[in-house]
């Protein structure tokens, strides 16, 4: 017995030592040292991590600020930005296998790396120095042991190559490509699978508005939708340099700032681009020239790609002799929007070429200004809403009928669209004659539903599934105006059949008890981790399993959630932020940031709700360190 106790004690001691050793290593991978020496700095930069993973940088010059932003991007977001770079350079097959070679082929066919490098060389010298400073900080982070010990890089045994200054322009081009409208997918059939592989899409569902609170203080709200990526897509930075204070929402690996504020303005810029189209031309009408790109294979061999191009025109195919089908896209030329993003920081007019440049801005006097030409601009009390889909018009209507509030009503779950449609359809359906008790119960839930897409809503599940089955059967939603008598009878019968199919589906997926058909169960939010989402045989597959959260909201409600009626890939991942005018005072953010539970070896979040926190520079830091010039 004593020997057994001794063995158990030794095992326990050994396990404890291993645990402490792992904790030491992992803590070092998360917590930077107190002082980090970097070349390229002219003066020390104080870095503080505030609650909510917000980073505060106190620099003495703009050049040092860019170095520091590069460093924190690399330190906190090495895995996603390296993956995005690999995709932007068309070198994913070198990391993985031939299954992703078509994505690399698409990137080289569109010449993203070549034009990004040419765009960098065409930039003015001061702008090139900004990218060089950023890459210095990023490379310093990528060289640290903590980054090399990042779980994903170790598990996949991936090398880390130096970051060239022009790589950030390649990422900018990749994001502009992913942001192209779905209508271009027919011409570029590999684009939709690339979006799905990177989990970055659905940007058109982003929206912004300015409304007046009860104290007549303008509130500027914005939401950016970006696919189903479980990893953080944005990094908030509080930047202090040269007597300036700037709040920036950055995209790691780039100098893109979709949201931010200075002391004179705040802005929201949607990551969308409609600057692409396909055309058909006589071959002789375009000054086409042959261009070549080299595609590297995992074996080390190369494949030569041959294309024909004339400025922003790329030949896709030749449908008939002497006639070419071409893609027109500014990204085929050596241009960049970097100057436009930097102009925002200087409170200057921004002119975009790759992205649409659409969004909303509020000046220090509280006056809103529409940026670009968004497809939806709607007046609301004390301000306006800008959006990009017809659903956003319903959001504006809802904002017009809600009482004034000092807080953004983005948690509102009521849908005017569903309320109006349900009333018309039930009037058309009138009474339902069926002996199936489950269909009768479903019909009763519909008649008593108030059009709210909260987690507990059963009517929302039945309504959406009903319309989804109708849409699947007849390739459209039911008409919401009454046709003549003969067509009305046919429509009633079609709605009845669709409801039967919907109930059968819900019975099969959620059971015979309608009380379990809650919206949170029927349409959960499913966030995915890159690579592991498509490679379940990789190490630590359990850790990187899909991240599930209860569903709530709808495209037609102020609370966002995808819908099966959208006919596109669900995009639940989103970031929300709001400020109170005048700019420069308060900035609030709401988003998810999954944390790795080392004990359970799973990513998790403390609660399913989006975490809300303030970008307040006076918040007590969780940790601090200093970037110091290298002697």
Helix-residue proportion:
25-40%
Give unreliable regions as ranges. 17-29
Give the overall silhouette: globular
Mean pLDDT: 90
How many strand units? 26
Distance between the termini: 62 Å
Query: Can you summarize the main beta sheet?
Result: 10 strands, mixed
Figure out the total of helices.
17
**What radius of gyration results from the CA coordinates?**
27 Å
Beta strand %? 15-25%
Strand order of the largest sheet: 1-26-2-3-6-7-8-9-15-16
* Helical/strand content category: alpha+beta
Write structural notes for this entry:
- The chain is of the alpha+beta class and 631 residues long.
- The strands form 5 sheets. Strands 1-26-2-3-6-7-8-9-15-16 form a 10-stranded mixed β-sheet, with helices on one face. Strands 17-18-4-5-21-22-25 form a 7-stranded antiparallel β-sheet, covered by helices on one side.
- Strand 6 (235-241) and strand 7 (244-250) form a beta hairpin.
- Mean pLDDT is 90; it is low at 17-29.
Short structural summary:
The chain has 631 residues and is an alpha+beta fold. The protein has 17 helices and 26 strands.
What's the structural blueprint in terms of helices and strands?
Layout: H1 2-30, E1 35-38, E2 45-50, E3 54-58, H2 62-88, H3 92-95, H4 101-109, H5 112-122, H6 125-142, H7 145-148, H8 151-155, H9 167-178, H10 191-198, E4 207-212, E5 218-225, E6 235-241, E7 244-250, E8 259-261, E9 265-269, E10 277-282, E11 289-296, E12 302-310, E13 313-320, E14 323-328, H11 338-345, E15 359-363, E16 368-371, E17 376-380, E18 383-387, H12 391-401, H13 416-429, H14 437-448, H15 459-474, H16 485-510, H17 519-522, E19 525-527, E20 547-549, E21 574-580, E22 586-591, E23 595-597, E24 602-604, E25 611-614, E26 623-629
